[in-house]
Specification:
Six copies of one chain form a homohexamer. Chain A is an alpha+beta fold. Chain A has a single domain, classed as 2-Layer Sandwich (Macrophage Migration Inhibitory Factor). Helices cover about 40% and strands about 25% of the residues of chain A. Chain A is built from two helices and four strands. Chain A has a two-stranded parallel sheet with strand order 1-2. The longest helix of chain A is centred in the middle third of the chain and has 19 residues. Chains A and D meet through strand 3 and strand 4 of A and helix 1 and strand 2 of D.
C-alpha cells in the first residue's frame, strides 16, 4: 500500500510546452507503480501516486529561485569555455 | 500541537458540484481537530489542518490516472453481472 | 481515496506513558477515516491514514524546541499570577 | 542535501497585497538555505526549498477555517478590554 | 530537480524478513529516478528520492490499523469460499 | 502560521558525530523561524518547525543511495586531477 509523491517543477519538457502533459503524468504514474510492484511485490491497485507541480518561483535551489540559479549555472558554464 | 494534512481529489461529492465546498472543508477541519482533542487531549487551538486538493489527473491509482482506473473498475463490475 | 497524515509529538497523554499508545493510534485512524466518510462520502476502505510521531527535540515552536517553549509559556503564566 | 518545505497561507503581508510576492519568496529561499549552510555546513547548491501556498479556507486552526478563528480571537480580545 | 517520496509499510517482502532491505531500497531509488529521466528528461543527479518506512500500527486502512484490516479482508475472503 | 519541514540526512557535521545534535536542531529551528518573522512578519509563536532525519540508505541521489553517489563523485573528482 505504498504512497508515492512526485514533486516536479511546473514547466514543459518539449519546446512550446509550459507544463507537464497528461500523457507524461500517466507515464510517471505507471512507471513508479511498476517499480513498487517489481521491487516490493505491491499490486498496482494498492499504490497511490500523487504528482505535485511546483511553480518555478516556489522552488528554490542554490539559495535562490530556480530560474535565477539556472541562469547563474549557464553563465558560469559559458564563462569557462 | 498536531498537524493534520488531508489530501483529497479535487471533485465534488454532490451532483453538479465539481469541487470540495467551503462547508465541507470546514466540517473536515472541525471533525479531525475534534478527533485529536478527544483521543490525545490536544486543545483545538493547537491543531493545524491543511487540506490539499489534488487534480484527478495528478492522482494515480492502479498504475494509471484515477479516472481511468475508476472506469476500468466500473467496466469489470458491469461485465461480471 | 483520501490520504490523511497526522503528525504528533512522540509523548504520552497519560501519566507514566511516554508515547502514543496503539489504542490511541487506532482511535485516531478510526476517527479521521469516519470524518472523511461522513463529510465526503469516502468509503472507509479508500482512506489511508499515516501517523508520524515526531521527537520533541525535532518539533520547533516559538523559535525553539517545543519543550523549551512550553517551559517559557509556563513561566510566563506563573509570573502573571 | 536538505529539502526544506515552507507552508504558508496564501495572503499578503502588506496592505493591498493578497499573496506572497516573488521578492518575499526569494528572501525565504535565501534565508532558510543560509540557515542550513551556517548550521550544518550544507552548501547552498545542495539545498532544495519548496514553498507551498495554502488557501485560507484550506488551512484549519482552532477547529475551524483560519479566517473564522482569527475573527474569533479578535472578538475575544476586544471584549476583554 | 524532482523530489520523489516513497512511503511504504515497514515490513519484509520475503519470508523471514521484517523490513525493506538495502538492496530493495537501492532498486526503488534507481527505478523511480529512471522513470523521471525517461519521461521528463530529468538527469539522474537532479532527482532526490526519500524512502519513508511507516510502522504497521501507524498506517491506517479501512478505518483501522492495517494489520487488523488485512485480517478482516482475509476472513471475508475465506468465508465466501 | 507557517509550517516548515526540514529534511536532512541522519549524519553528523563534526568528526566523531553521527547525527544532528540537539544544539544544531535548536539553531535550525531558531533560524528558519526568524526568516519567516523577518520576511513575512509571522510571529515566532505561530511557526511550527518539523525536522525529519532520513537514514542515508533511505535518501537517493543520482539514481542510487546517497553514500554510493558520494563515493562516485569523489572518485570522479580524484580521477580528473
Amino acid at each position: 500500500m505504498p504512497i508515492v509523491t512526485v514533486q516536479v517543477t511546473r514547466e514543459g519538457t518539449q519546446p512550446g510546452s509550459d507544463k507537464v502533459t497528461a500523457e507524461e503524468k500517466a507515464a510517471i504514474i505507471q512507471g513508479v507503480s511498476e517499480v513498487l510492484r517489481d521491487v516490493l511485490n505491491k499490486p498496482l491497485e494498492s499504490t497511490y501516486v500523487i504528482i505535485e507541480e511546483v511553480d518555478l518561483e516556489n522552488w528554490g535551489w542554490g539559495g535562490m529561485p530556480t530560474q535565477h540559479y539556472r541562469q547563474l549555472l549557464a553563465q558560469r558554464k559559458s564563462s569557462t569555455i
